Prior knowledge:
By secondary structure, the chain is of the alpha+beta class. Helix content is about 35%, strand content about 20%. It folds into 4 domains: about 140 residues, no CATH class; about 60 residues, Arc Repressor Mutant, subunit A; about 80 residues, no CATH class; about 70 residues. The longest helix is centred in the N-terminal third of the chain and has 18 residues. The protein is elongated. It comes from Sphaeroforma arctica JP610. This is Nitrogen permease regulator 2.
Amino acid sequence: MPTSEGDLTVHPDAMQVGCLCGHRKTGAYLYGVSLHRDGFDLHLMLKFVCIFRYSKDVTIVSFPVCIESHKYKRNKMLFNLGFAFDSNSYTGDYEPVCRKIAKYLRESELRDEFLSNPETKVRLPEFMIRLREELLTTGQCSFQINEWCLIYVHLPVTLPEPPDVWDFYVPVMVRQAERQQIRDEWDGTLKRVYPHIDGKNHVADIAHKAAVDTVLVRKCIQHLVYYQICVLVDIFQYGNTYMVTPAINTLYNDGPLQAQCCVYVHDKDAAPPHISTIFSLYTRLSADKDVSTFCEENEQALVGVDVLRFIQFGMVFGILRCVRRWPVVVNDCTAENRTNSPTKKTVFSVPDQIKRMFTGGVPFDEVCYKLCVSASSLAEAVTLDPTTTIIKK
Length: 393
């Protein structure tokens, strides 16, 4: 192991490869010599992944292995493959990798003397370089040690926590349905829910059509979102407002994504649209124009385009962002000014029990869902009441 503080000085027979995590002193190391060190009980650590902080800058993760046999000097061979990291790096993902590689190398040594034979151990630098490079770039590595041993390791994929699923959200499949086979081991509830996820039904609709409790449906969809089988979008309404995001540049530069977009948004009753038309339509969406107005202004350009799928594709790939509406109750001064406005000739009062939801923290879609009213009806009621208004953000 390293012997001088602050520097990775290794035994002359040891091998080292490159930089693993951006630190000039970090990398992958394989030691094929005795690893005795003051205060370090190797025999105690042979059964465990060894993690120790060598200096204030470097942490080493390794898995020491001892093979006892009369053919070795001192009747045993000790080796250790490890990774050196910056001291503040998370090393948990590399611990199972160290353990698995150590077991592969041990079996290769016992069967073919891979580590002790000078003719075969010359392949170790190649293996270590590939291990480091491929784990950094792809998170996985495969290497053919000999005719019978193929080493395959991969870093665990850490998926982000799924968002909360609300009854008014619409799940949209992002993988082709025919590739997602409903397996026998799937939960019975998921089997009933899955066929009703069509990109149009919101969670409450799915629960009703599948005859499943809404709480269970939310859990099922949350699992599908976690495993990246579907994503959640807002209920499509012609009163919604959308605007493009910087991800529109991805659509401009990505040819395969353009082809996928043309196929997805195509209205089967007309000729398929060209990507230039679709791109132009996306750029015409703005925060001050709802979908209904957008459709009226671009009637000719929308020939061959399914508006629902056009919006959904933009939401799924982050090309569009829904400008959400939040009903709020305004103060008395603002209400008086709005009452005197020429556009407020008719005065209407939203019931107090409904106004209690107008806190600015409950989205418009959720209010519509809980009241079982259409978006246009609620929007009209809020507009006619001088004490309420809608904030878009």
